[in-house]
Amino acid sequence: MPIRKDDTPPNRRFGIVNLVLIGFGVLLLVSSFLPNQGMQQVPRVPYSLFVSQVDDGNVRRAYITQEQIRYELKEAPAEGAPSVLATTPIFDMDLPKRLEEHGVEFAAAPPQKPSFITTALSWIVPPLIFILVLQFFARRSMGGAQGALSFTKSKAKVYVPDEESRVTFADVAGVDEAKQELTEIVDFLKTPERYTAIGARIPKGVLLVGPPGTGKTLLSKAVAGEAGVPFFIISGSEFVELFVGAGAARVRDLFEEAKKKAPCIIFIDELDAIGKSRAGSMGVVGGNDEREQTLNQLLTEMDGFAAKDKPVIVLAATNQPETLDAALLRPGRFDRQVLVDRPDLSGRKTILDIYARKVKLAPGVDLDKIAQATSGFAGADLANLVNEGALLAARSKRTSVEQGDLNEAIERVVAGLEKKSRVLQPDEKKVVAYHEVGHAIVGHLMPGGSKVAKISIVPRGMAALGYTLQLPTEERFLNSKEDLEGQIATLLGGRSAEEIVFGAVTTGAANDLQRATDIAEQMVGTYGMSDVLGPLAYDKQGGSRFLGGGNNPRRVVSDATAQAIDKEVRTLVDRAHDRALSILNHNRELLESISQQILEKEVIEGDDLKDLLASSVMPEEAVAIA
Ligand code: ADP
Ligand code: MG
Ligand code: ZN
Fold first, then answer.
1. Residue 5 counted as domain residue
2. Is residue 17 in some structural domain?
């Protein structure tokens, strides 16, 4: 086969050649039709030569236009030389006189009038271009995308789950309480009549609160998937724009759309972007007007709609509930708050199960072990972990994911998380365990209307590494002196346990001490519970909360009284501390055994906890301290 250098297919080459030829043809044609004022090639001569030829009487006639003067000689200077010449005119007022003197026949071209077509074009084309440009923008903005005129349109996307990508509650694990709450919402949407018939008010707003990656967005999609209603999804940041007022207009637009499609769900992700507390953002320079307007519009819209059988439910998610404006949390708005927290051990196991189903696991992989090693992981971290494991397996050309891959994946994910300080080292975890059990045992033995309901060492939020939950057993409006003393002792139980077991204290108790001291100060200063200082209120109530921070200013007292108050507060806290120490020393074995259990399970609650705490005993000496 012959080697062809030119690889262009022949017919395409033909096409190109043709095009070029046609182009040329058109050019030629056009140029031949162009108005030409006898533009055949005429030799040009200097003006001075023309003048001297006129003076010599050798010019028969001249034709004068603005561009040139063409003239004909009476006789050519030589045989065969052209007798028609041209020259470029210069501004010469004497020319007509000179031509006349020498008997030259001359004429000038009429002034060029713009043709009708030129006139028409100059009137029609500019407006036409203008209209076209306008139409271009208008069409883009109607397309809904990011057109220049579309900034007042809400950018909410209607999320329509197809059968394959439909998310249901089965895809979300480890957040059972949240699921339960939202199941009710789904029920509302499916059969609103059942609720309205009794006269129950359907909630308007549900706020999902929890750390990043715990499945808030996923849960809300699951609600949409389960309820089978239209689902508008938009991120809070998409409301906030450069143009003041655009956000508010978008909110209006969004709710208008939603009302047309009711019953439906509006999901506002990252609500904090618009819902930041107005008081809290005072320091920021400028730029808040827009957010405030958007927020106000949102509040107005939420107050506005109340169609009974056509509910529009607003779901929102945030990981900074503490920054939200209080107005958002009022009844009739986001009055339901659902905590979506990091999963505990069994929750992590179920999440791992979900994601392990999507990869090929080698036989004998123990997901329980993985779940145990991933305390503090959120759902997204676990999904990420399984995927990392699969990547590692694929990299070493194995066909299934082995335990080793997953273990290595944990390390990788942890390395990422440690930067965000969300994972406890094993020795830290031990300290947290004893600390929390210390709270629980002391709390259980103290008088007052509350019982210890749950101990957890799953890190929560940014500050709390673990927590002990005390629930009131009866509704109480008054606390006795003994109750408050018990609360202080319970708060000090965590630190006391650390002292007893490790002989050292950590920074983990800072918040406990703060609260314990606050209670002691109030006992002395506000409630007059001190025998030494008597029933006087040393605190001034009702000082400005905004200027002074939290604490009430003290009434004007003598130095001696001030010292006495300080001493009394100190005594209260010290006594509670002694009490906690004595209780924990006395129940040392129980402290040990519960701590070991919680290190394994991470969470102990309900009857298990009740049974464990039932064997604690109140030492005689602790009663005496009180
Ligand atoms: P959030 O909105 O709370 O920040 P997302 O819902 O966006 O978190 O979660 C990100 C991803 O992590 C989800 O798409 C899902 O794959 C996974 N994920 C998070 N939490 C869970 C959970 N509880 N159960 C199953 N998967 C989860
Ligand atoms: Mg999210
Ligand atoms: Zn504590």
1. no
2. yes
Q: Which residues pair with residue 233 across a beta bridge?
A: 157, 267
| CATH code for the domain of 530 | 1.20.58.760
Residues 359, 348, 506: CA angle, nearest 5 degrees = 135
Angle at 242 between CA 236 and CA 246, to 5 degrees: 65
pLDDT band at 587 (very low <50, low <70, confident <90, very high): very high
245 and 385 assigned to the same domain: no
Q: Is the CB of 315 under 6 A from ligand 1?
A: no
Give residue 146's pLDDT: 44
CATH number, domain with residue 179:
3.40.50.300
The C-alpha atoms of residue 270 and residue 71 are separated, in whole angstroms, by: 86
Q: Using the 8-state DSSP alphabet, how is residue 539 labeled? A: B
User: Tens digits of per-residue pLDDT, 66-123?
Assistant: 888 888 888 877 777 778 888 888 887 888 888 888 888 888 877 666 677 888 788 8
Q: How far is CA 219 from each of CA 236, 355, 374, 518, rounded to the nearest angstrom?
A: 17, 16, 22, 39
Residue of 216, 600, 179, 182 whose CA lies nearest to 378: 216
Which residue has the CA at smallest separation from atom 17 of ligand 1? 380
| Residue 595 counted as domain residue | yes
Nearest protein Cα to ligand 1, atom 11: 380
Q: Is 436 a catalytic residue?
A: yes
Q: Is the pLDDT of residue 500 over 90?
A: yes
Ligand 1: residue of 218, 358, 359 to mutate (most ligand atoms within 8 A of CB) is 218
In the 8-state DSSP scheme, what is residue 361?
Answer: B
pTM, full prediction: 0.55
CA atoms within 13 A on the CB side of 40: 4
Under DSSP, the state recorded for 603 is E
Q: Is 567 exposed, middle or buried (0-12, 13-18, 19+ CB in 10 A)?
A: middle
The answer to whether residue 1 sits within a structural domain is: no
pLDDT value, residue 293: 79
Q: Do residues 613 and 584 share a domain?
A: yes
- Clarify whether residues 227 and 299 are in a common domain: yes
From residue 156, alpha-carbon distances to 235, 258, 268, 453 in Å are: 8, 10, 9, 42
The number of distinct structural domains making up the chain is 5
Q: Are 484 and 512 found together in one domain? A: yes
Does 442 lie in the same domain as 403?
no
Pull the structure tokens for residue 241.
């724009």
Question: Tell me, what CATH number does 74's domain have?
Answer: 3.30.720.210
Do 257 and 206 contact (CB within 8 A), yes or no?
no
Q: Is 175 in the pocket of ligand 1 (CB under 6 A)?
A: yes
Structure tokens at 203: 């909630």
Helices (H), 526-558: 545-548
Of 241 and 69, the structure prediction assigns the larger pLDDT to 69
Residue 458 to residue 422: CA distance in whole angstroms: 10
User: Would the CB of 569 count as within 6 Å of ligand 1?
Assistant: no
Question: What CATH number is attached to the domain comprising 379?
Answer: 1.10.8.60
Q: Which entry of 388, 436, 568, 602 is annotated as an active-site residue?
A: 436
Containing domain of residue 70, as a range?
Answer: 47-108
The answer on 527 and 438 residing in a single domain is yes
Q: pLDDT band at residue 588, thresholds of 50, 70 and 90?
A: very high
Per-residue pLDDT of 411-437, as tens digits, reads: 778 766 655 556 677 888 899 999 999
226 shares a domain with 170? yes
- What does DSSP assign to residue 114? P
Domain identity same for 468 and 558: yes
Neighbours of 371 (CB within 10 A): 24
Mean pLDDT throughout 15-22? Answer: 54
213 CB under 6 A from ligand 1? yes
